[in-house]
Amino acid sequence: MIKVVFPDHLMPNTEGVRETEVDCDSYRSLVRELERRWPGIEAVLAKTAVAIDGQIYQDAWLETIGPSSEVFFMHRIEGG
Amino acid sequence: MSKLHVTTSVNGQPEEVLCEPHQSLLDVLRDELGLTGTKEGCSTGDCGACSVTLDGRLVCSCLVLAAEAEGKEVGTIEGVANPDGLHVLQQKFLEHAALQCGICTPGFIVAAKVLLERDPNPDETTIRYWLAGNLCRCTGYDKIIRAVQDAATELAHEA
Amino acid sequence: MAEAHDLKVIGTRPVRPDGVEKVTGRANFGADLHLPGMIHGKVLRSPYAHARIKSVDVSGALAMEGVLAAVCRSDFPEETDDLGRNVIARDKVLYHGHAVAAVAATTPLLAEQALDAIKVDYDVLEPVLSIDQAIADGATLVNEEMHTNGDASQPASNVAAITKFERGDAEKGFAEADVVVEGEYRVPMAHQGYIEPHACTATINEEGKITVWCSTQGHFDVRTQTAAILGTSISKVKVIASEIGGGFGGKLSVYLEPLAVKLSELSNRPVRMVMNREEVFRATGPTSATWCKAKVGAKKDGTITAATAWLAYEAGAFPGAPVGPGCMSVLAPYDLENFSIEGLDVLVNKPKVAAYRAPGAPQAMHAMECAIDDLARELGMDPIDLRLKNAADEGTQAPYGPKFPAIGLKACLEAAKAHPNYTSPVPEGCGRGVACGFWFNIGMQSSAEVLIREDGTVIINEGSPDIGGSRASMCLMAAETLGIPYERINAHVADTESTGYCNMTGGSRTTFATGMAVVQACEDIIAQCKERAAMTWDIDADQVDWDDGQAVPKPGVNADVDPLSLADIARAWGRTGGPILGRASVNAQGAGAGFSVNWTDLAVDRETGKVDVKAYTAIQDAGRAIHPAYVEGQMQGGAAQGLGWALNEEYIYDDNGVMENAGFLDYRVPVASDLPMIDTQIVEVPNPTHPYGVRGVGETPITAPLAATSNAVCDALGFRVSELPMSPPRLLEAIDSQEG
User: Fold this and answer.
1) Residue C154 at interface with chain A, using a CB cutoff of 8 Å
2) Strand partners, C163
């Protein structure tokens, strides 16, 4: 089971849930499960960045997730 | 309004230009003579990107009317390099990484060249105050000052 | 990843490949393109900070001699986004200088004169000009349809969004503290101050194919944005990036390009548009003015027990202030369990803010680094020791969620403590101030093509406009990977039809992500070279090594042959299958965060309020400095911008929302005589996700100087000035009111 944490600005999409656990082994399957729980969240997550075990990804579509990983969704960072 | 006929000399070459009375020397160098090495940063004489020499004097070409170049010798960045290679200042700017985006570089090189012609051994404060009319937003000036110091040393050895 | 001592060219300081063009004035920037038949475009800008547009009539301009085209809002697709509404005003003008119409004429003067003939009927509205005004009860609304966080059940508001980050229990943490300090800080709107104004030249042919030449940090984005605003497809738009005279985040969005294209379409001539300096100040994208509050508590031994921050950012005319990154960076240097951060994105009638080097971080970190400084003073602790006690490290959970991988903050702090500029006493009459800096750095998408010439020399094509010497770094990384001399490689920034897709130059991503693509493209070349050598030697490709720029049989392989260099292989490529080209594209993940420590010694003249900066030192973790001189350059340039912002730079608005100091004389950026040499030290904690350990370095440098300077002034004066800039009038007033 992996730990998934949502930032404040996504909590309206998760019915106020900040932290949850999901059984999955890839980012793609994680997003599928989150969409099943909270329909519509996939489109919102497409515009976020995500940190998996400390590494920040703007696009984690290809990433696998380990059995005890921590996943944090966060604002996309652009830069100047 | 009929144009003015200006006869001048740019980097040692005689030039004749037709220009409007209101056009600045900067406008004419860039748009009539195709010498785009001199840059426009502000048009109010505050940034030095348009630095050229007029009869050997360092000026902001955005503040000089083209008509004022009549009968005078204009020196631009295009005339700084020697026939056989870069001027020492240009070489030192490259070696010291004294440019990042490079937009201010022509103005700095023209200005520094005039300084070193007048004062072959300037101290750091003199260099900084002489170049205070040239803005750089990328480098923080550190490497520019070091390049000018190094160029001064090398020119002194050559002399 | 190679260890530092194994590297042959990375870490050296060769001359950049585009250098000679730049020092001779040959390099072509945005306004340097001259096309036959080219005419000149100018923009009519709103004289009001806030007004409804009742009508726009360009017919008077079109009737004038020499005017070949004129456009206004009706010439652009109505369905658009905030960027489109910023490029040309639709139902309202939202800031003084907002573009309302544009003309193109045979000379710049005629175009300028034609603007006066355009009739615009305005319904003038009251402008909102500060956060205080914007959040007050009964405030005029910049956008009557704006609801905070999109919540339509609440009344319309000038607060577009509220962001929160929380962990633990800050109140409990403060209760456990022995010392609590708090402060309130104001940082002004400031401009990136690039010396080159925005400039572009646009043409369109009879098939609707558009070509744009422009100064930009991201020409693929120019393509996307221009096509969208014009309602055409990206396949019709080709963008050529000129050399760029500074950007710092301010040249990531289009302002002129869609206007120039439309004018070109209507006039059937190439159209050049160049902003003047006033327009750059009034109508491009400065960064947010902010109002921030910070509070931090600690035990006697310096352990931080809690921190809170309230960060309100002016977004300008449209939502999107960098308050999110501000909230995420404000406590990034610290390992703490209890914090609460709230950020506000506030609309005001000022230009839409754009990114400015680590957008959002300088303002927020100024607040917290000043509070930390006061904490150190209260505790009687050295400011670096206090930071070392609480410093984030590998494994620390960052305030924005994930645990940090290997980072260099402690290394920077330790280097600072040992540095002669820190161990030396503060000069007589001066104050010293310290601060930490941080930026996330990003990866994103880059492509690279590496072409070999028949003589074995190398061409790199990539799509990252070069704002600071990145082509030199690309050549260094390629030279290291291929094992050939740096001088045999050249790098070009190619146009959108000549190289693969590439995200903008910004976010400190270029050496990291485009570098990664270049390295992989070189590895592609090496793989092909091994195959060609194998063919030549009649062995298998997996029996070939690439060593120091040459193909050699692997040790133990029975082949009595001479090594084959890249030049040898290229010369014979006709026999072995044809020309050799390499390519790679990446969506680079794993960008490493960059930390820094800065400090400055300065003196304040109590008679005039003038600050004299005597010394400045910046230490930063670069992961691996590919070209150390250009890394140092980023550190020095960012420090200079930060010093300028702390000591002199600000947008001064009158009550009508008109900027009073829209020129380099009165918007006073640092000049050479204002600054000392800026000492730098590069720390290297390699980033394992990059083949050479690179971390981005461009943005972190501006995040510490605001607080370092504030803290030094506080040390010099004996009291804190919390509003920037600490310009002579402001310091004099503060000094007089302290003494009076």
Assistant:
1) no
2) C343
